[in-house]
Amino acid sequence: NPEGIAASSRGMAARPDVTGRLASIDVPTLVIVGAEDAISPAAEMRTIADGIPAAQFVSVDGVGHMSPLEAPTAVNAAIDHFLARH
User: Fold this and answer.
1) CB 64 within 8 Å of CB 70
2) CA 17 – CA 31 distance, rounded (Å)
3) How far apart are CA 57 and CA 48, in angstroms?
4) Of 1, 20, 47, 73, which is most buried, counting CB atoms within 10 Å of its CB?
């Protein structure tokens, strides 16, 4: 509904930028992004992963923002691999 979308947009616009705090994340972190994601672009997500000391970055080819629904096998494999290492 339009009111919900508008409220969500206002909420996202009002959020503070916390990228300066990424380096304080001290747990293994998996960042998964769809290579065709227009909402959270792969380059932006790569920057986030690079800011987290123990992050692993995975880009899933051929999918967008809903990569777990668009490519569940690839996303689950990335999660399985990450969990097996930790």
Assistant:
1) yes
2) 18
3) 9
4) 47
| Cα torsion through 64, 4, 14, 39, rounded to 10 | 10
Tell me the sheet residues that pair with 32: 58
- pLDDT (tens digit per residue) in 23-52: 999 999 999 999 999 999 999 999 999 999
Instruction: Let me know: does 44 contact 22? Beta carbons within 8 Å.
Output: no
pTM of the model: 0.84
Question: What does the alpha-carbon distance between residue 22 and residue 47 come to, in Å, rounded to a whole number?
Answer: 10
Q: Which two tokens stand for residue 82?
A: 């990450």
pLDDT level of residue 12 (50, 70, 90 thresholds): confident
Burial label for 5, CB within 10 Å (0-12, 13-18, 19+), is exposed
Torsion of CA 68, 74, 58, 84, to 10 degrees: 110
